[in-house]
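Journal club prep, shared notes

We agreed each person brings one worked example of a sequence with its structure written out as tokens. Mine is Short-chain dehydrogenase/reductase. I'm keeping it raw so we can talk through how to read the token line rather than staring at a rendered picture. Sequence first:
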Amino acid sequence: MTTRTVLVTGCSEKGAGAALAKEFHSRGHRVFATARSVSALESLAVLGINSIRLDVIAKDSIEAAVEEVTKITGGRLDILVNNAAIFSLMPFADTKLEDARQVFEANVFGVLAVTQAFLPLLMKAGGTGVVANVSSISAEMCPPWQGVYSASKAALTALGHTMRIEFAPLGVR
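Then the structure, token by token:
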């Protein structure tokens, strides 16, 4: 088995990101688990998983994470899992515009910023780099009180389709 280097965003305890980080780690891969707060990563750090503070909507935080991963790996990343997200449960008529913007900042623009920042490292994976975006069935179902969340995940799904096409010539899937 080839050891891969994996970065997972949004790894706060008991969430899907933490579960993904543990699974990659259990398969022998070098994992970088990220969250806005390093204290949210303590249960992963004790397992030997690299813990990095990463706020996907803060440029300086993204740059610091890229710098740390570059320093540890020599500038290569095999897999980027964009999992960090903000969930919103609010009737459409009562949704504050600023709250909706925050959801899109994390769920759409954060993915764009993180992926762009780590793309040079993924391209150094020798044609085997992977970007995996965690979307939601809500992007298709659009349940009540989840309009903003559903719209953000639909936008993420569309971005993912574009990434697949545009990154293929770069050796990134």
